[in-house]
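Entry details:
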Amino acid sequence: MGDGVGELLGECARADCPHGRLLVGDAAAAAAAAELEGGDLAHAAQHLAAAIAGEPLRPEWRALLDRLLAAAPAPTALFPLHPEPPFVGHLVCHAQALARQAEPGRGLCLLVKAARQRPGVPYLAWASDWFDSPAALRRPKATEVARALEEWLRPHLLVRRPALTAAERRDIERFRPALEQLLKVHAAYPPLQGLGSCFLRLAGRGALAVTVALRAFKASPRFIPAVTLALAQHVNGDLAGAVRTYKRALELDPSATGIEVELGDLHLELRQPGGAVAWYRRAVERGTPELAVEPGLLVARYLREHDPACLDALRALGAGDPPHERARDWLAWLGHPLPPLRPWIDQLPPPGDVTLELLWKVVLASDDPPTGVLVRTALSEVEAPSARLAFDLVADQLGLQSSFRVLRVQDPDPRLPACEVEHLLWTYEGTHARPAVEPPDEAVRAEVAGLAVTPYSLAGWAAAGKALGARLGPAAIPDLLATMVHPPPLPEALDVTADRWLLRVQQAAALTIAGAEEGWAGTRRRAALHALVHGPMDWTVQAALVAVCDLAAESPEVREEARRWLDGLLARVPRPGYCCWLRAAVVLAQRLPGASEEVRRRCAELEAALASA
């Protein structure tokens, strides 16, 4: 492998390596132990980094790493951090070397980077071991710990109810005891105290979060420390204190926006609807979208008048597409919670590709997104071509250029169809995908857009897709397929992002294909859906699965084939890395009529594992 990709993957740099040039797991660890005994430390480091990258909590591998670091005259040099981006195994092992050299603060920064590269892998668990004594707690610089925490918590810093994954919660709880001690040692550094308050708030330590935030605000009475304190007070139940602190934050920075909504929410929780309405109206006057405060205004009216129409309006917002999360939260607060949204029945879950995380967290993270710049990154594995297509749709609007490099190809190869198929939507040049079909007829594309713009529910879209498919007929199937990779423009009236729009277009097209003719065996609709399910890994696989499983509810013939197709998919999940259709496959397999209890149990376990990753 050229261009330094071998080093980025932890591939052994020695062409004559007797163990194999790209080992993982136990095989890599065994090769590392053998080379350490033989005195080839650099060779041992390559194999050990590859093992630890996949399973950092294996104690015997960490012990082997400590032996390797103790034997090396320059431990950090064993795990280089160039070229960019560094291999995740090098990041973690380099971090351990820094911790052994009394630089755990710098090491923590590297563990955070590793966790960003591979979400769900417990690299951050190592950090809790580095601060196990008073002497160890004094080693890191407060600035380094603060820098690591800021990177770690960036998506959640000023969010009152962040959506944390189970893996993020585990990482926070593991590190919490060490952080509490670090905050005591570095009590004189306000930025660390403020970040620490955020961390403690996420960890459920509300009272301590208030204490730490108050310490930071007294030392540095500015806007951000004030907001941090108000958030901690709010979560800890001191609503009146949070109101006072938010008002103080506005005095410190009168140009700040968003605080008015928080003050409106607090007045509702204090059962003061008049004050809430006043703050919400002020928020709208200062540029907050009316939709953001509409649920709060409905709650205020309900508290005043007890009008059931307010609850009906809140339910409509909470059950909408996309659902209004604030409406759902307020309904729960009022004691009228909505049932959870069922994926692919009530909603189309958002995609989770790293490409899109880059887009939303980096490119569009600010109110003034960058324009005309080059976005360059490396992806650990091949991702869904639709993720790159969604990225490009936004990038084109902003005048951005992008350069993506893929570090490895999974097994089985996600770029290839699983069998011979009649239609192929994507073709690859190396690891770069491009549509394999020409743009569709504009009239067909407009019909799909007309369905995709409506509020989503599987029942409603399946019925509309059946009617549209019957009207267009099977001759339109090639154009419907082409629409999935040449989507219509995002309508200005629809408040969704480019990735959600593409997801909707693909689902609408798949349901229209499913309704394009009657019968199953030998039909053109079966050939098209078979090609999508068995084609290259993409969001279009998921869209086809939803359509096929909907047909299966009414047809025993389709049901048997759907079961075989799902079994085949679950037997060939590309590994390692994220597979865009996997969660849909395990959810739909459980819903398939006639699925055995064993299949339901295994798929439920896999779904739970995916949710906690």
